[in-house]
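pinned: reference chain
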Amino acid sequence: MTPQQHISYDLHRMVVFTILAGALASALGISISLFAKFQEIGLATFSQRPDFLGNYVNSPLAYIFNMGLIMAGSCILLAMYGLMQLKLGHFGNYISIAGIWVGVSIILIGIYPINYLFEHRLYSTSFLVGTIALYFLTMCARVNHKVAFPTPLFIVSALGFICACTLATLLNWSTLDFDPCQHPADMPCMVAIVMWCQTNLVMVWCIMLALTVNKLARQSYKDSLSKSLSVTY
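pinned: its structure tokens
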């Protein structure tokens, strides 16, 4: 067994634990800001788009929400780093590039919340297009790499792809924003519902990928160990 084998496995383990910790911290930050807004307007909170929680004027804990987004984006960047280290071929590289795109977009959304309207629209649209590419590539990779992209990850990707495509059809591409919801007072806004689903699915996808990276790293480590022992004896 070489020191490089130890280093490789420990690197992946560090990436996985950091992803899970970042996902937990970002989910906690978003939940805290959501609860604070819920205390103000009750169930009407869920009829508002999630990015409204980052509004420094109207959201009481907007800074926590925006920090949660920055941490979520960082979580995805770490996941992509772990995926690249596994060297899964062209599809793995394409997914990593799309994931980096999504992660950077989320970080920029956290830095430029809805108060910075032009930048927020631009980076939100970038995030939407990036997630469509990310989910589509993951589903395609499932065809040739079933072990590397297991069924749970495929299901989350399929659901995310549906949500992202739905948002793309609802988006007003001339303004890069969604038109105001026209719905009865007792009915939730369709855009808000889909955006909440998309927000949660991105984090679930990130966690599923982290668990997949951990599983593949453990298997690679065991294979390397078995090979090393067979050569030794």
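why pinned: Strands lie at 171-172, 177-178. The radius of gyration is 20 Å.
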